[in-house]
Amino acid sequence: MLLNLLAGLPVMLFCLLMQAVFITICLRHYVHFRHTHPNRESQWLNILLLSMVMVLMLLGNFVQIAIWATLFMLLDEFDEFATALYHSAVNFATLGYGDIIMSPRWRLLGPLEAANGILMFGVSTSVMTAAVMDVIKHSMERLQQREHL
Question: Which segments cross the bilayer (predicted)?
């Protein structure tokens, strides 16, 4: 069990760091665009901005899945990266199919990755929710400005 924690916790911390990088990049670009184009408001622009946020958050999750798959390959749990990636995605998304299992020695890495995945999907959801709330706020402000004209 201790060996699983020693192998898994650094990967989990690295994944948390990676997600923080993706969030920072995403929000920096989002805020920069909103600040430099305050009067550009359209339905298509909002769709584009929200899509950008969703794609970057999803990309961050995919990178983490690949990082865990790399760990599984380094531990010689799988012969092919595609199988390790599939197993990692099942763990990260907490699906738990059980069609591919790891050896008893490293099996506890699965729940550790699942905990990482639950946390990261929650963080991704909160970033997307913040972006949606910002779009709603800007839309409401524009409507109020039109009413006052």
Answer: 6-27, 47-75, 114-136
